[in-house]
Amino acid sequence: MKTTSNKTINLRVSTATKRLIDRAADEMHESRSSFMLEASLARAENVLADRTRFTLSEQQMRRFEAALEAPLPTPDALAKLLKRRAPWSR
Predict the structure, then answer these.
(1) Residue 2 has pLDDT above 90, yes or no
(2) Distance (Å, whole) CA 46 – CA 55
(3) How many Cβ atoms are within 10 Å of 20's Cβ, its own excluded?
(4) Which of 23, 36, 53, 71 is deepest in the core (most CB within 10 A)?
(5) Would you say 24 and 32 are in contact if contact means Cβ atoms under 8 Å apart?
């Protein structure tokens, strides 16, 4: 995720936690901020991906199930999509 950084996030941690994070960041040849941001973004994406929910009426559910059961109009497009790398893993 490459954007212009203009906001600050401050954390208070124990000395042991800071040392652990610094050691891991050093191993990855990253700054502490970069290491923590990457880890936080990955966790945030995982949390939000598991929290997607929607509600349908009975009629909407029947239409949704019919759409799931219908044959694919362009199976090659799906094959191409499934071969693409996920945007959050780039």
Answers:
(1) no
(2) 21
(3) 12
(4) 36
(5) no
The token pair that represents 37 in the structure block: 């941001």
Q: By C-alpha distance, which of 30, 37, 44, 35 is closest to 9?
A: 37
Q: What are the helix (H) ranges across the chain? A: 15-27, 32-49, 58-69, 75-83
| pLDDT 10s digits, 43-70 | 999 888 877 777 899 999 999 999 999 9
Q: How far is residue 15 from each of residues 8, 23, 36, 69, measured CA to CA in Å?
A: 21, 12, 16, 56
User: The pTM is what?
Assistant: 0.53
CA neighbours closer than 13 Å in the CB half-sphere of residue 46: 7
Contacts of 11 (CB under 8 A, 6+ apart): 36
